[in-house]
Amino acid sequence: MALWVDKYRPRELSKLDYHKEQADNLRNLCKQSDFPHLMFYGPSGAGKKTRIMCLLREMYGAGVERLRNETMTFTTPSNRKVEIMTVSSNYHLEVNPSDAGMYDRTVVIDLIKQVAQTQQIDINGQRDFKVIVISEGDELTKDAQHALRRTMEKYMATCRIILSVNSTSRIIPAIRSRCLGIRVAAPNVTDMTAVLQSTCKREGLVLPPELATRVVDKSERNLRRALLMLEAAKVQQYPFTAQQEIPELDWQVYLRETANQIVSEQTPAKLEKIRDRLYELLSQGVPPNLIFRGLVEQLVNNCDMSIKAKTLEFATQYEHRMQNGAKHIFHLEAFVAQFMNIYKKFLSELVMTDDF
Amino acid sequence: MQRGIDSFFKRLPNKKNSDEDATPSPPARKKRKALVISSDEDEIAESPQVSKHGKTLKKTRTALETKSPRNENGQAKKPSLSKLKDVAAAKKPLPKVNPVELFGGETKRVEKPKPKDRSILELEDEDIDRSLMEIDEDLDESVKTVKQEKISTSESSRKRSKAASPAPTTKPKTAKTTSPAPTNKAKIATATTPKATTPRVKKEKQADLETSVLSDEERHERKRMAAALYQKYKNRSSCLNPGSKEIPKGAPDCLKGLTFLVTGILESMERDEAASVIKGFGGRVMTVVGKKLNYLVVGEEAGPKKLVQAEEHGVNILSEDGLFDLIRERSGEKTTEKNNTVKVEPKAEVKVKEERKSAIKQEEKIHSLKVKQEHNEKETKVSPKVKKERLESKPVVKVEMPEKTKTDANNNNNEQQAWVDKYKPSSIKEIVGQSGAASNVTKLMNWLSKWYINHDGKKKPQRPNPWAKNDDGSFYKAALLSGPPGIGKTTTATLVVKELGFDAVEFNASDTRSKKLLKEEVASLLGNKSLYGFANGLSQAVSKKHVLIMDEVDGMAGNEDRGGMQELIALIKDSSVPIICMCNDRNHPKIRSLVNYCYDLRFQRPRLEQIKGRIMSICFKEKLKISPVQVEQLIAATNNDIRQSINHIALLSANEQLPERADAAQHVAAKDLKLGPWEVVRKVFTAEDHKQMSIYDKCDLFFHDYSMAPLFVQQNYLQVTPIGNRNEVMSKVAATADALSLGDMVDKKIRSNMAWSLLPTQAVFSSLLPGEHMAGHFTGQINFPGWLGKNSRSNKRARLAQELHDHTRVCTSGSRLSVRLDYAPYLLANIVRPLAEVGAEGVPAALEVMKDYHLLREDLESLLELTTWPGKKSPMDAVDGRVKAALTRAYNKEVMAYSYSAQANVKKKRAEAADDDMGILGEEDEENVNVAESEDEDKDELELDGLIKAKKKSATSITAKASTSKTATAAKKASSSSTASKAKPKSKK
C-alpha cells in the first residue's frame, strides 16, 4: 500500500506525463550507442529522479529495477570510518556522497573511482559502460567536485555519471561543461492537474478541478507534494468537495505562525520566543533559506508598502551572511530583530501621524 | 656557669638542645637526628637512672651557688657536663633501638623502654669524663688567667647556653633577624681559648660524687616533673596574634649594652622575632638567666625556673609591652660600649669543647674519628637536611651559617632567597592544609614507616578493595601523590622522607627517565647501601632505607623518556624500596596505568582560609602591608595555589619598594582573576563595569573563553535592559543582533581558514559591540547557551532523517530533504492511521506500509520524532499500547532482512531479529526483489549470516503463521467494513 506518489510513478520514458518532447530526446539519446555524462537539474518534485530511472530502464531494460541496498564503508585520511548507503542494480549505482558530510570527497575518490575503474563484466548488457547516479549533486563540496571532474574524464570508457541537482549554480563550471545539462522544469499547472486527475482516475476517485487547482497552488508546483497532499486530503475527506481543506505540512504552519508572531509584537522578550521557534524549525531540518523565504513572504504580506523594500533588503543581507557564517540562528535572529525594529518604528510613526 | 644552672632547671629541653647544638650534627645523622633526640627524651622521661647525674648535680649546684665567683663559674660548668653525660648515657642505647620501631609510628616509639644497666652507665660516664679530662688538662694552666676575665666568661657562657637552651626559637623563617646568636656562637667557636673549660670539668667530677647522694625516687620524681614541663614546652602554641602590635621605631642602638632574655609566648611576636627586634636595637639576647641579665621579657607560659632565677638575680621583669616601652624610652640614648671581643674568646673555647663532648656522647667507641668529624660537621651544617630538625630544635639554625658574621650577612642571604624557598615548610606540621589524622601527610607517613614491615617478603598483602575507605596502602609498593601544582606535594614527600630518616633518591622531569636509564640508574642506586651513617659513626652504620622519589611523572614524555612509564611500573612491581611518585593529573592516560600499582593519595587544594593564614604571616614577617581582602583576592586569583600566591606577594612587595608603581600593584590581584563565562557575560553587559574598563579590557573579556563567549552573549543579550530611552530598545537589540551576525561570519572564517589572527576582530563583533549597544543591567537570569543543545538535537534528527532516507531510497525518489519534509508526515500517517482506526486489526495494514518502504521498527520511532512539533499531539498517542505491542510482535515475526538491519539489530534485540518465518516472507514480498534475493542467500548460508538465526520450525511458528494470515484476512474485512469488532482480535490473541 504504497503512497500514490510511488505507486503511480511512470517507469518508462514513453509513459511520462509531461515534458514529452524531452522524453523523446532522451529515448533517442539511448538509441545511440553512446551518451555523454548527464546532469538533470530542476526543482524538487519536478521528476528528475523519475526521468533518470526511466532513462536507465530504457538503456538496460527491466534489470535496473532490481535494486539492492548496500552499505559501504570507507576510511577517511583521518582514520574515520564513514558508512554510505548505496542503491545499485547490475547496471548502475546510485550514491549520495553528501551523506558523508564533509567526507564526501573520500566517497568520490574511493567509491566512484573504484566502480568506474571496473569494466562491465556482463556481456549481455546492452551497453559497455556502467552508470553512476549521484543524487543531490549540488550538496557536494568543492573538493569533492574537483575530485569528480578528473574521474569523469578518465573513466569515460567504462562509466557515465548522471548528476541530479537542484541548481547548477553550486556545481563548479568544470563539471557543468563536462555534462549534458537536462533541465527538468517544474510542471506547469495544467500538467499537474492532469497528473492529479489521472491518478485519481486510476484510484477510482473523482477529483473536482477546483480542488486540483488548489492542491497545485498549495504544493508550489511540486508534484510530489501535490500527490502527497491529495492523498492526505482523500484520507481526510472523501468524496472530495471543491472547497475542502487541504492538510498542510506542519513546518509550513509553524513557520507561518512564527511570522505572524513577529508582526504581532516587537519586544526583546518576543524575540527570544521567536528564537526558540526558529531553533525548532532548524532542528526539524527545515533549511534556513526556506525559513528565510517563508518568513519574508509572510512578513511582506503583512506590512506596509514603505517597509517592504527594507525588509527584503535585510532578508537578502542576512541570508547572504548566513551562507558565509556558521550558525544559522544568529542571522535569522538578526533579520527578525531588524524587522522588528523597523516595524516598530513604522508603527510609532503611524501613531504620531495619527495624533496630528 | 649560669648556663649550667639554667640548663639544670630546664633540664630536659636544654639537654635536647645542647645535644643538637653542641654536637653539630654530623651529616649522616642529620636526618635521623630528630628521632635520636626524641628517643633521648623518652629515655629521660622513663628511666630514672639517666637523670641521676642531673639531679644530684642540681643539688650540689644549689649548694655551691652561694660560693665565690670562681666557684660559680665552675659550678655552672659542671651541670652542663653532667648533662652531657646524661645525654651520652642516653645515647648509648640508641644503637640498640630497632629502627623499624623507630620509623614505625612515632607514638609507639616513645614507649619503647631502653634497657640500661646502671653500672654500664657509670662506666660510660667515667669514660667520658676521662676523655674530657684529657682534653681539659691541657688547658689547665690557663685557668688562672681566666680569673680576671670571670665576668666576661660568664657572660659568654651565658651566650652559649642561650644557644643551647630551647628558649630562643630561631626559626629558619626569621633567620635573617635571629641569626646573630648562631653567628656569635660560631665565631666564638673558632676564636676560643682553652682556659674557661678546665675548672668546669673538675667541678663536675665533684658534683658527680655528690649526685649519688640523692635517692632514686627523688630523681625519678624530678625527671617526671621535668618531662612534663618539657612536654608542655613542646606543645606550646605559637604567638597568639602575630603582628597585632606595632613595633616601635626606636633609635638604632637604643638597647645597646642591655641584655635580654625572652621567655614564654609573647602576644604579637614569635620569640625569635622578639630576639631579632632586640638585636635590631643593639641589645643582646641571652638564653640563660644570669647576673648579667638586665631584663627578662615574659610572655605566657614563661619558664618557671627562669622566673625564679630572675628573681634571685634581681633581674627586671618586663612584659612585651614593657619591652616596647623601654625601646621608646631609650630611643636615642646611648650606652657605653662593652668590650665584646674579650668575652668572645673564652666562649669559643667552650664551644669546641662542647662539640667534642657531644661527639663523645654519640660515638663512645670511635674516639679517633671525633676531630675529623667535627670539621665535617661544621662544613655540612649548612646542608638543607638540617631543616627537618628545626621543628623541634629551632636553635639549629644558628649552626647553619658558621662563616657568616652577624645579622647583616644573614639578612643578605635571606634577602636573596625567593620567598617561596624562604618560607618553605621545614616540618610536616607546617605544610598548609595537611594537618589532621586523615591528611595525606599522615597517610604517607604511615605507609612509608610501615613499608619495610609490609614488604619484608614474609606475607603477601591483599589487594585492597578499590572502594575501601580507610586503606593504609599496605598492599602497594609505591605511592602516587596527585594534585594540582603549588599545593605541596613535593614538599610533603621530601619532608616525610626526612622525618622518617630515609635516604631519598629523587628523579624529576629534569632527569632523563627513559626505560634504559631508569633501569640502570635506579636499580643500581637502590641496590646500594649508604655508607653515610657508617662514616658518621652511627652504629646503625649502613643504611638500607632508601626512598625513590619520582617527581613529575606526568612529565615523562617525548623521545627521551620513552618507555619510562612501563619501566617505572616494572620497577614498582619488584622494588625493594618504597617509591613515591608525584603527578598533577592522575587521570592522564599515561598515568592511568601507573595508578593501579600505587597507593593513591590525592591532594586537594587547600581552602582559601588555610592559605590566607600562611600568607598573612609571611606578609607580617616581610613587613608587607596588605589588606586581608586583597590577600583573599590574590589567593582566589591563583586558584588556591600556595606557591603562586607567595610569588604574587613577593611581587607586590617588590612593587611596594618602588613607590611610583605602588598603584599598579593594586591591580595585580584583580587582573589575574580568571572569569567563568557567566561572569564574563555579566561584565560584558553591565554598564557600571564599563566605567572603569578600557576598550582593551572589554575585548579581553572575550578571550576568557573565546569559543563560549559569543554563544553566551547571543543567548543572553535579550535579558539585558539597556540604559536609555525605552523606545530605543528594539533598535539596540537589532544593532546587537547585527553585530553578532557579523561576529559569526568572522568565526566561520577563523575556523575554516585557521585565521586565528582574526580573533580580536571577533572579539569586537561578538563581545565589545553587543556590550556597547546593550550596556545596562541584567533583568533575567543568565542562561547557558541553548545553541549547543539545539545543535546537537538537530544533528541527531538529521541523522535519523538520513537513515530514513537511506532505507526508503529504493522505492522513493526524493532527496533527503524532501523525504524529511514532504514524505515523513504522510508516511507516518499512513502507518499509524490503520492502527488508530481499527486497533489491532490495523496492524497488518501498517506493517504492509512499513514493508513497502523497507522501514525498520526503529524507523517508526524516527518518523515520530521527525514529525513532532511543539504543541502538536503525536499521532502515536491515539494508538493503544496493546496495539503498538502487537505491531512490534508482528514486525518481529515477519522481519525483513535488509542489508542495513544488521546495524540496527546488532544494537537492539538481536536475538529476536532474525527469528523469521520464511514462508510468510516469501509470500508477502513477491514484488520486493531485494528481499527475495536476500532470502535466497539466507537459504544458502544461514549459519554464516550473523543476522539470521537457525529457524525454529516449531509448531508455534506454524500456528503463528496461520493466525497472522487469519488476522490479515480479518483486517481486510475490517477495513472494508471500517467497523472493528473488539472481540475478534482479543480472541485471536
UniProtKB/TrEMBL annotation, chain A:
Its main location: nucleus. It is found in: Nucleus. Residues 34-190 form the AAA+ ATPase domain. GO terms for biological process: DNA repair; DNA strand elongation involved in DNA replication. It comes from the Eukaryota. One of its GO terms (cellular component) is DNA replication factor C complex. InterPro entries: AAA+_ATPase (IPR003593), DNA_pol3_clamp-load_cplx_C (IPR008921), DNA_Rep/Repair_Clamp_Loader (IPR050238), P-loop_NTPase (IPR027417). Pfam families: DNA_pol3_delta2, RCF1-5-like_lid, RFC_C. Belongs to the activator 1 small subunits family. Subunit of the RFC complex, an heteropentameric complex consisting of a large subunit RFC1 and four small subunits RFC2, RFC3, RFC4 and RFC5; the RFC complex interacts with PCNA. Forms an heterotetrameric complex with RFC2, RFC4 and RFC5; this complex has ATPase activity but is not stimulated by PCNA. The heterotetramer of subunits RFC2, RFC3, RFC4 and RFC5 interacts with RAD17. Interacts with CNTD1; this interaction facilitates crossover formation. This is Replication factor C subunit 3. The lineage of its organism: Eukaryota, Metazoa, Ecdysozoa, Arthropoda, Hexapoda.
Automatic annotation (TrEMBL), chain B:
Residues 250-331 form the BRCT domain. InterPro entries: AAA+_ATPase, ATPase_AAA_core, BRCT_dom, BRCT_dom_sf, DNA_pol3_clamp-load_cplx_C, DNA_replication_fac_RFC1_C, P-loop_NTPase, RFC1. Transmembrane segments: none annotated. GO terms for biological process: DNA repair; DNA replication. It comes from the Eukaryota. Residues 1-220, 361-388, 917-989 are annotated as: Disordered. Keywords: ATP-binding, DNA replication, DNA-binding, Nucleotide-binding, Nucleus, Phosphoprotein. GO terms for molecular function: ATP binding; ATP hydrolysis activity; DNA binding; DNA clamp loader activity. Its main location: nucleus. Residues 163-199, 955-982 have a biased composition (Low complexity). It is found in: Nucleus. Signal peptide: none annotated. One of its GO terms (cellular component) is DNA replication factor C complex. Residues 52-61 have a biased composition (Basic residues). Residues 122-140, 917-944 have a biased composition (Acidic residues). Residues 106-121, 141-158, 361-382 have a biased composition (Basic and acidic residues). Belongs to the activator 1 large subunit family. Large subunit of the RFC complex, an heteropentameric complex consisting of RFC1 and four small subunits RFC2, RFC3, RFC4 and RFC5; the RFC complex interacts with PCNA and the interaction involves RFC1. Subunit of the replication factor C (RFC) complex which acts during elongation of primed DNA templates by DNA polymerases delta and epsilon, and is necessary for ATP-dependent loading of proliferating cell nuclear antigen (PCNA) onto primed DNA. This subunit binds to the primer-template junction. Binds the PO-B transcription element as well as other GA rich DNA sequences. Can bind single- or double-stranded DNA. This is Replication factor C subunit 1.
